[in-house]
Design goal:
By secondary structure, the protein is mainly α. It has 22 helices and no strands. It starts with a helix and ends in a 10-residue tail after the last helix.
Length: 477
């Protein structure tokens, strides 16, 4: 049974030395590619973290109402929805590198539109363009990194690029306390400008080359990524043979977006959608965009809060990067979700204490610790790992469609939480975070029951275990 393959014990031999794998993978094309896409992820983080520390200054300088600023904060997710709708088709049609060119130009344009805005309309246009880019990049970056990284370094490489998102958020938080909002927007464009020269030198994904019929280029790209002395014949053959198998299946079962809804994809589609939407429904964007409001409401200094959460999220992300290819994806997801649950619960209790004037000296500290636990836990696993798992479990013939659907679901859930968060706080601050805590608790149960371990397997092995007859003694869990 395929399910038995998914639920078996992990192969302990997969815990290869991380430093050794990094040394072996440090070829120039891989380093340049990883650097470029990590800069893109960093820029993504800068975009997400921009609104929280700049809220009061933007509203004051441009004379915006709460409704105007809520639109500015939430229009990012409107762009996210549009980006989500086109991300899979675009990356499959023009390739990973050309898609990166497009997203990079959108971000640069968006930052300068915000920096030179004299009214709300240009501010919203800039944020909307950034949203489109983020919607595409949230799918593009983990997929590309997953497709070019060696199997025993895939989790760490993807998590490290995910850590760049957290670093970008943290840098925005920290700089936002000392830099004017227009200057912060100009600084946000710098990572994208750094990416431009790198894009001329980085290779296309070998798996995308195989799926579009450019098999002759696959070995050359792999040789560049793995090093001239590496034996890449088995890896190239596995990629090409599996791609040919997928194409044969397309001839039998058809192709297109609705192929994704065949019964054999039900488990993987559910896993991807739930894992990726879970942080949003668990209050992530509420914390990200309105952290200042949370700190003010519980009596915490905004500057202290922003700097503390920035540091702790980086620490959590770094720890997750080190552990992901040692402990595996699933244990980190469970620990991360448990931490986010405790963070939401602690935040809810802080509001109860503040409302009833109990423990007045300790409540701000407790609130700060709760928010820090939430962000540290998010950085540890639920930040990078949902997209890492999603980029691993879908075969190339439905990866674009699956990425589009997962991205669309998370964008819609992100918009809902972002737009209604202020209204939820007015309804009941305590109730809002109890709802988020409940969502994270349900996520723990879901992950424990259904999410597989993908550590140490090639993408083709993972896909075979999900969708084909499993090889004897092959395991994912």
């Amino acid at each position: 049974m395929a399910e038995e393959g998914l639920l078996a014990s992990p192969d302990k031999s997969s815990t290869t030395s991380l430093l050794s794998e990094i040394s072996n993978a440090s070829t120039r094309p891989f380093v340049l590619a990883f650097t470029a896409f990590s800069c893109g992820a960093f820029s993504f983080g800068c975009i997400v973290g921009y609104t929280a520390p700049t809220q009061s200054s933007i509203m004051k300088d441009l004379n915006l109402s709460i409704a105007d600023y809520s639109l500015f904060g939430s229009i990012l997710t409107v762009g996210l929805v549009l980006g989500a709708l086109i991300c899979g088709k675009l990356t499959d049609l023009v390739g990973r590198i050309n898609t990166m060119w497009i997203t990079n130009m959108l971000v640069i344009t968006g930052w300068f539109a915000i920096a030179f805005a004299k009214g709300v309309w240009l501010l919203d246009i800039g944020r909307f363009l950034q949203g489109i880019s983020v919607g595409i990049s949230s799918y593009l970056v983990p997929v590309y990194i997953t497709e070019i990284a060696p199997r025993n370094l895939r989790g760490a490489a993807s998590s490290l690029s995910g850590l760049s998102v957290g670093v970008g958020i943290s840098v925005s938080y920290a700089l936002g306390t000392v830099v004017a909002w227009r200057d912060l927007a100009i600084l946000g464009a710098i990572p994208c400008l750094m990416i431009v020269p790198l894009l001329f030198f980085i290779p296309e994904s070998p798996r995308w080359l195989a799926i579009v019929g450019r098999e002759k280029e696959v070995e050359a790209v792999l040789l560049g990524l793995r090093g001239a002395k590496s034996d890449i014949s088995d890896e190239a053959r596995e990629i090409i043979e599996y791609t040919q198998h997928v194409k044969q299946q397309e001839d039998v079962n058809g192709h297109g977006f609705f192929k994704l809804f065949q019964r054999k994809y039900a488990l993987s589609l559910t896993i991807g959608i739930v894992l990726i939407a879970l942080p949003q429904l668990g209050g992530l964007n509420g914390y990200m965009f309105y952290t200042g409001s949370i700190f003010t409401a519980t009596g915490v200094s905004s500057d202290v809060g922003f700097i503390s959460t920035s540091i702790i999220q980086i620490v959590g992300g770094f720890l997750g990067t080190v552990l992901v290819d040692i402990s595996g994806r699933r244990p980190l997801l469970l620990v991360s979700q448990a931490g986010m649950f405790l963070g939401c619960l602690g935040t809810a209790i802080s509001f109860i204490l503040q409302k009833n004037n109990c423990w007045e000296t300790g409540t701000p500290i407790f609130a700060l610790i709760s928010v820090m636990v939430y962000f540290a836990s998010y950085g540890l696993g639920m930040g990078p790992l949902p997209w890492v798992v999603a980029s691993e479990i879908y075969p190339v013939d439905v990866k674009g469609a699956a990425g589009t659907l997962c991205n669309l679901i998370t964008s819609l859930s992100s918009w809902i939480v972002t737009y209604f968060f202020s209204f939820l706080l007015q309804w009941s601050s305590t109730g809002t975070f109890f709802i988020f805590a409940t969502v994270m608790c349900l996520g723990i149960v879901f992950t424990a029951k259904l999410v597989p371990e993908t550590k140490g397997k090639s993408l083709e092995e993972i896909h075979s275990l999900f969708y084909d007859s499993p090889l004897e003694d092959s395991t994912i869990f």
